[in-house]
Amino acid sequence: MKKLIIAGLIMSLSACAATENTTAVEAATKAPDSVNLGGLSNEEATTKLLEALLNKSYLASRAGPNGVAVDFDRTQFILQPSMNPDGIDRIMMNRFYAIHPKYVGSKEMLFMIGTLNQKLNFAKFVIRDKGAVIQVQGAATFVDTITMEELRRFILWTDEGLRQVAESLPEGSQDVIKPIPVMQNIQSI
Questions:
Q1: Which residue ranges of the chain lie beneath pLDDT 70?
Q2: Which has the closest alpha carbon to 146: 40, 33, 35, 43?
Q3: What is the pTM of this model?
């Protein structure tokens, strides 16, 4: 009988030890709540930001040395850390739209972009590539560390602003201005 009690105690202690190890492993692999980019170059910060996004189950990939392409709610953005060791750090969020060739360089497009910049403050609208592309850019500011929740809310806020802009444009605008995909083969993933 004593042998059964001792064997039961050993089994109980083994189970407790195994439970403690499992908890330690789960804690070690939990996705971070924030990402510390302080003291890093833009390229190093990009790598660390990509890792943090992937750990939080975002669909993301590298986009050049200083960019992370992110698919968020079927919308694609490029995030670019802009690190400033003596001041405010930023994560720039970019969205690109192609302009129909008929409207490239047109006064109507310039007027629309100017009006958007005057009336809205959530992003800056810029015409690039000789009038063929609209770049929409916003910035999340922080000092060294940004929480993943702050980043998520920033993306949501900008995405919602762009949805409202799209809804306010005249009917047929979706044939003139189309989002440019920034991630390769997104549908195959």
A1: 1-31, 184-189
A2: 35
A3: 0.77
